Structure formats: C-alpha cells, structure tokens
Amino acid sequence: MSLFDIEVTTIRGEQQTLAPYKGQVLLIVNTATKCGFAPQFTGLEKLYQTYRDQGFAVLGFPSNQFMNQELEDNSAIEEACKLNFGVSFPLFARIDVLGADAHPLFKHLTEEAPGALGIKAIKWNFTKFLIDRSGKVVQRFAPTDTPEKIEASVRKLLEP
C-alpha cells in the first residue's frame, strides 16, 4: 500500500486518502496543543507558508497519547491551533500514533523510518516525518528537532 492510499479523517470529520498530496513534499507531524513543544506550531506554519507554493505541505495529526496533552474535541483542537499559533496547514482528526490501535499512517511511517537504535515507536509529541514527492519516507526527526533545523532538508527535497 502506498502512503497516498491511506485513509485519514480531516479535523472536520471528512474521510479522505492522502492522494491529494501526491507529488508534494510532506512533513507529517504528531501534534499536541498543550505540549511543551507546541510553540513549534509557529515554526511549522512558517515552513508551510514559505514553501507551500513550491509543492510542500505540513500535515498535523493530533494525538493524546503522551500525558494527556491534547484536547478531546477536534473542533477545539482546530480552534486552539489557529488562535494560539496561526495554523493554516491541514490538520486531521485526533488519532493514536503508537500501540495496538495506532493509525495505519503512523504504522507505515514508523516501519519506513524507525527512530534511534531502530526503535519504531513514537516516543513523544512532535515527532516529524519528511516525505518526498513519490511518497517515500526519507527522514524522521525527533520532537526536539525544530522546524528551523528541518528547513534545509525540506529545501533539498523541493529542488528540481
């Protein structure tokens, strides 16, 4: 199965696959609005605004699996991201990113790009996966890796 065949639910409850993003460079991030790393939303939005016209998108997937740092309601998540951080990049419905109930997208991502020491599990909020235009996971970034640190890798994938 291709990354673009995976079904997801938008923050507003609409079912879709990732096919609309085929041919784009993607940064897929598991997010949490109450996490200490939440200020990264601002940097993620800046990356999105800077490179979206070149075929780049940030896709945010809220999760509440790490110390209950995400709001319960998808509309509240969307509102918090917009009001507190100016987020305009696509957000999706709250999901599980690890364990038996992990969403198929994150099962795929962690299989393709294990973390340190080959550990596949997501360890915390704001783990980031950089995807090339063909849908291949090319790099996994730790929660501590800021959007500013990731920018050079994004630019490299956007080069013709």
Automatic annotation (TrEMBL):
It comes from the Bacteria. PROSITE patterns: GLUTATHIONE_PEROXID_1, GLUTATHIONE_PEROXID_2, GLUTATHIONE_PEROXID_3, THIOREDOXIN_2. CDD domains: GSH_Peroxidase. One of its GO terms (molecular function) is peroxidase activity. GO terms for biological process: cellular response to oxidative stress. The active site is at C35. Residues 1-159 form the Thioredoxin domain. Keywords: Oxidoreductase, Peroxidase. Pfam families: GSHPx. Gene3D superfamilies: Glutaredoxin. Belongs to the glutathione peroxidase family. This is Glutathione peroxidase. It comes from Paenibacillus campinasensis.
